[in-house]
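Ticket #4471: structure export looks truncated?
Reporter: QA, pipeline team
Priority: medium

Steps to reproduce: submit the single chain below to the structure queue and open the exported record.
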Amino acid sequence: MSILHYFEEQKSGTLPEIYRDLTREQMETRILEIKEQLGDKLFIPGHHYQRDDVIQFADAAGDSLQLAQMCADNKEAEHIVFCGVHFMAETADILTNNQQKVYLPDMRAGCSMADMADIFQTNRAWAALENVFGETIVPLTYVNSTAAIKAFVGKNGGATVTSSNAHAMVKWAFTQKERILFLPDQHLGRNTTFDIGVPLEEMAVWDPIHDKLEYEGRLEDIQVILWKGHCSVHEGFSVQNTIDIRNEYPEMRIIVHPECPREVVALADDSGSTKNIIDIISNAAAGSQWAIGTEMNLVNRLIQAHPDKHIISLNPHMCPCLTMNRIDLPHLLWCLEGIVNGEAVNQIIVDEQTTNDAITALERMLERT
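Actual output as written to the record:
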């Protein structure tokens, strides 16, 4: 392959073929060399759902917002190679300074949930909902959303939420307006608002595909409007999975992520954020039994980390998050060699206005949690 062809492929965002021909050992050796060469100028955050061959090179592992905050706190890092998905790298770029560059090793690593709410759909929905409900709605968005959605929420008096602080932020939102529009995950919104006392019959669903409010009852009774989005991984856990576990392992406890459907959460022994799940399993007694309803890479890692406990996936047929799995050794090495060669491979840049509005939404959350 010619050097010209190589750099043309770089510009197009396509992994050059030379990386597909390398062995795992060659790639791992070169990644370690680059990490040593760049030292503190390089920071590699890795989300909990990343593949094992990638997460081994992470300087820190965690949830998306936690990692973005680590990026912001790390002033020495000039280059941040975010091993996660697109919205996470966007958040890191929003929170870091202009001298720091954020990269995503594979631009195809998106998030199906985040992609279920684009800014054009959201603007249409907001106009339609305000036409019905007036200025009685405050928007909240899960941090698992695009920078544009975070900015929209910031401009309209709302805030971001995480799965850890969603309860506190929903309570805050109800001090601001009579109703909440919760984006983009209907399951986290439903589980959270139900937990704080909102009846299911007072929750409506906005269908962005058909620009339609799904609700049976009096419109004035609606307290929560849930965006019709979901996590493709967590929606894969079912009521039947919980029944099967109860039948096969009567002593086993079930813990699930609140992105799972309401019916599954209701049947589980506990639910919580990724960090909460990790902490509960880590602190559990030796010999305890756990069925976990979350992403498979993380479940497998917990199984390996806690051989003294019986841990399985709530769904035995669950696959890892496919978009998270797009970050692999060839793409990570390609991105790192681009930095060494002065080429910005897959740099993530959020424009100034979007950044400012998104920071407003994030700061409203951080001030209260």
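Status: closed, not a bug. The export was complete when the record was re-opened. Leaving a note from the reviewer for reference: Residues 73 and 96 are 8 Å apart (CA to CA).
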